[in-house]
Fold:
Amino acid sequence: MFQLTKKTLVPLAVALMPLTALHANTNTTPKFSDPTYIIVGYAPGGASDRAARFVSEQLQDALGVTVLVENKTGAGGRIAAQYTKNQPSERDTLMIGNPAVMVVAPLVFNELSYDPQEDFTAVAGVTDYTFGIAVAADSPWENLDELLAWAKDNPEEFNIAVPAYGSLPHFFALMLAEQAEVDAEAVGYRGSAPALNDLMSGEIPVGIDTIDILTTHHGDRLRILATSGDNPDEKLPGVPTFKESGLNLSASGWNALFAPSTMDSEKVTYLGDQIKEIMSRPEIQKRFNDSDLPPVQMNSQEVTAEIKEFTDQWAPIIKASGYKVD
Structure:
């Protein structure tokens, strides 16, 4: 019978060392740069910025390094995409992206400094969002029917404020006009803040933006008439969806994290797993929901599928609009 003795244990241990090391290496955390960055293409305090900061605080523990949020604003998020694409490989960098950057921009810009498919890899989904149509709180319209009836009688005055030309609210406004069979002019602003200011002051009669932006002033200086989700928003009792208002109209958006395509696949997989786990935590879900940013749990493959679905949905609308930027 073979017996393990001190003399047999030593060479056996030596012989097993490569196997032990191999097993250990397959379970180690990839080494990330310290600090690691999340790039946001919009101003601090907005939906993308808040989502990035919520995640970064939790991701630090998972990676064992400092995770910093860096705002690179301008051009509807495209500056952030170009910046993230060009980061050196030794500096681990993620970008929080949305359909405007990853879906709409390639469809409307003849020249783009990045290719969403070639230059980026989807990591994980973070949040969904929906849209709303709003008027000033002292406006005469109490519901969408009244607004659209006025619009049909006053087509030259039916101007809709949107946070930017080429944004999803811009094209959603065109969808609304088509569904309601009214003429409408989408007026693009340099962000949500100036659009809201003109809407609340009565400079423009109607506005479309994301729900998390509009709810801040609903019941005070704004009146939300309808929302674009499939179901009513729990935080807006009495506010119907567009479908409940008689229009076959629904739409949403998302925020997801992307890495430059040069990032090591092992790191991408690890990040995706960690972020998906973070987004499953009840306290994190509550924090997102409290900010009107419904949390999602999506891995890389699911985000990629979502991009394709959005492209299929929005490409015909954008093409029909004729909107192009040189």
Notes: Residues 1-26 have pLDDT under 50 and may be disordered. The longest strand covers residues 120-136. Residues 36-129+253-321 form a domain with the D-Maltodextrin-Binding Protein; domain 2 fold (CATH 3.40.190.150).
